[in-house]
Design brief:
alpha+beta, Nuclear Transport Factor 2, Chain: A, 3 helices, 6 strands
Length: about 120
């Protein structure tokens, strides 16, 4: 596995785009934490696995437009569309602030804003 934060996130995102949640989780620490700012926090691989299985009924369609790295912190800005069980897609813009530890994704602070329909 690469130690470059951009490469790590790009490879992890490629797994998500391919519907490979386990492949994505391989890039995460066991105690990974996702903070959805203003919403909820998910802690640990098992809880994250359940979230991914429930939320990504089909692989999300996302586009990272900007990536900024400072040491073990990576900021990714982009947009995402997630389909619900009925196939209706919700589109949002996001700014993800990732903290890496030992070459793995350890913490996410996700700022997500739904796009108006």
């Amino acid at each position: 596995m690469s130690s470059d934060p951009k490469t790590i996130l790009q490879q992890a995102n490629a797994a998500v785009a391919a519907g490979d949640n386990e492949g994505f989780l391989a890039f995460c620490t066991d105690d990974v934490t996702w903070h959805f700012i203003g919403e909820r926090t998910i802690t640990g691989k098992d809880a994250l696995r359940r979230y991914l299985d429930e939320t990504y009924i089909e692989p999300p369609d996302f586009n990272v437009t900007d990536e900024l790295v400072d040491g073990d912190t990576l900021v990714a800005i982009g947009d995402i569309a997630i389909a619900d069980a009925a196939g209706t897609k919700t589109r949002s813009s996001y700014c993800d602030v990732w903290r890496l530890r030992d070459g793995k994704l350890a913490e996410l602070r996700a700022y997500v804003v739904p796009d108006p329909a």
